[in-house]
Amino acid sequence: MKKPEQLLCGVSMPIPTPDEIDRWHKSGKLVASVFGLGYVGLCLSAFMAQRGIRVVGVDVSEEVVEKVRRGETPFFEPGLEEALKTCIASKMLEATTD
Length: 98
What we know:
With 98 residues, this protein is α/β, with parallel strands linked by helices. It has helices at 18-27, 39-50, 62-69, 80-89; strands at 5-8, 11-14, 31-35, 54-58, 93-96. A three-stranded parallel sheet has the order 3-4-5. Strands 1-2 form a two-stranded antiparallel ribbon. α2 (39-50) crosses α4 (80-89).
């Protein structure tokens, strides 16, 4: 039986099974991109990075990206700055404007 596919950017791609995603996660090969490092994006990025998913956070603001790279939060959220510092130090989270 052929795997189900989805159309992404005009390209038909197979949809990974939950078992495939689990294997990627356990192997350290699962990478997520989060666009926007505001209240939702930065919290989501830290949450995923703490759980072993390598995250590339993208934001248009160089100021926000520099703060994140230093492990500083651009806003207050209880526990986020400590989590962010851990994720940056472990290289599970990186921030970029590219």
